Amino acid sequence: METLLPDNQLENWITAIAIAVGSTALMYYVRCFAVRRMRTIAERSETRFDEFVATMLGRTYVTLLLCFGIYFGSLFLFMPDGYRVIISRVAVAALVLQLAVWGDTALRAWRTQFMTTHSDGARKASSMIMFFMLRLVTWTVAFLMLLDNFGFNITTLVASLGIGGIAVALATQNILGDLFASLSIMIDKPFEIGDFIIVGDALGAVEYIGLKTTRLRSLGGEQIVFSNGDLLKSRIHNYKRMETRRIALVLRVAYGTGDERMARIPELVREIVSARDDVVFDRAHFFRYGEWSLDFEVVYHFQSPDYNLHMDAQQAILLEIYRCFERERIQFAHPLSVIRVAEHSDQAGGWLPQSSTQHGELRH
Questions:
Q1: Closest by alpha carbon to 127, among 176, 200, 190, 183?
Q2: pLDDT digits (tens, 9 = 90+) for 85-126
Q3: What is the band of 153 on the pLDDT scale with cuts at 50, 70, 90?
Q4: Which one has a higher pLDDT value, 281 or 34?
Q5: Virtual CA dihedral for 9, 10, 12, 17, nearest 10 degrees?
Q6: pLDDT single digits (tens) 235-275
Q7: What's the CA gap between 58 and 34, in Å, rounded?
Q8: CB 89: neighbour CB atoms within 10 A?
């Protein structure tokens, strides 16, 4: 040993070896204690964070801990600067590798937890792409840090990767745009499979969310395919997440209805609508003189997003309003055409009938 590093005595070597072995054993003991402690906490905790930490610490390699121990022991030896630089670089490389292993382990544990809690195949496919990209970034950064640690000039390499990445991105921008849009849909969740949405003039239930396209099943039965990028650029109406429905009805009453009956109509409608438990009455007002009718606006809120139940309630309300108007002798307005016949003289001095038609007048 003294011939390898002649400036060190036997005591220096014994101290360095003892520090290396002792620090390695201490780090290994701390690692085992922390893993057991975190797993015990994870069994009582409702969150998965403790389990993730325990899994990460369990992937702490003894070989890397030994590299740290050798570095600590080398601090007690006299050695040339070249040797010390090599040992320090090995220790830094071990640290970078261990951090990369921890990050990769955390990502894989997150992926496993995500796969067990989500049964949607399309969402699983999107998540697999996202996790692969995150792992790729983790190991790429670790690789570049290792090269820089050992003295390689990575500036040119990073610049080349940047230029190549830009070229690839420009060539595949549509595909990458749809891919990142798919990841955005997966993370932000503006809609999910089974939701009924309207996009522009297309409407239907979400049937499939893929890496590039999203597919709807329309009310007519055909399948509508959107690219994910175009879909997120549009305004999406998600009816599945509707909590209540605001319904506005217009009742058209015939001209000539008495003022007393006109004044009673809002109260009659209020009683009919308020009688239902699944509806919250808002208002009923005489709001407009129409061309051929006196118009009342009725507004209420149906307390369910289900469209069929909403139509059942609306049908019951309209039928009850019809019966009420029949009892109160209130007439609904409807457009009529009135034909007026006029007479005029012909060239011989006689009279001939002439007809004219006026639309939109109401005949009582």
A1: 183
A2: 888 888 889 989 988 988 888 888 877 777 776 665 555 666
A3: confident
A4: 281
A5: 150
A6: 888 888 888 889 999 999 999 899 999 999 999 999 999 99
A7: 9
A8: 15
Alpha carbons within 13 angstroms on the beta-carbon side of residue 27 total 19
Question: What is d(CA 77, CA 66) in angstroms, rounded to the nearest whole number?
Answer: 17
Residue keyed to tokens 């409807």: 334
pLDDT (tens digit per residue) in 187-201: 778 888 888 898 888
* Spatial distance between the Cα atoms of 269 and 260, rounded to a whole number of angstroms: 15
**Residue of 268, 274, 288 lying closest to 329 (CA atoms):** 268
What is the distance, to the nearest Å, from the Cα of residue 364 to the centroid of all Cα atoms in its chain? 58
Say how many residues make up the chain.
364
Place of tokens 């640690």: 149
Q: Name every residue whose Cβ is closer than 8 Å to that of residue 230 and which is 6 or more positions away in sequence.
A: none
User: Do the strands 236-238 and 213-218 form a parallel or antiparallel pair, or are they unpaired?
Assistant: unpaired
Single-letter residue type at 37: R
What gap in Å lies between CA 312 and CA 140, rounded to an integer?
60
Secondary structure (H, E, C), the chain: CCCCCCCCCHHHHHHHHHHHHHHHHHHHHHHHHHHHHHHHHHHHCCCCHHHHHHHHHHCCCHHHHHHHHHHHHHCCCCCCHHHHHHHHHHHHHHHHHHHHHHHHHHHHHHHHHHHHHCCCHHHHHHHHHHHHHHHHHHHHHHHHHHHHHCCCCCHHHHHHHHHHHHHHHHHCHHHHHHHHHHHHHHHHCCCCCCCEEEECCEEEEEEEECCCEEEEEECCCCEEEEEHHHHHHCCEEECCCCCCEEEEEEEEECCCCCHHHHHHHHHHHHHHHHCCCCEEEEEEEEEEECCCCEEEEEEEEECCCCHHHHHHHHHHHHHHHHHHHHHCCCCECCCCEEEEEEEEECCCCCEEEEEEEEECCCCC
The encoded tokens of residue 195 equal: 């939701």
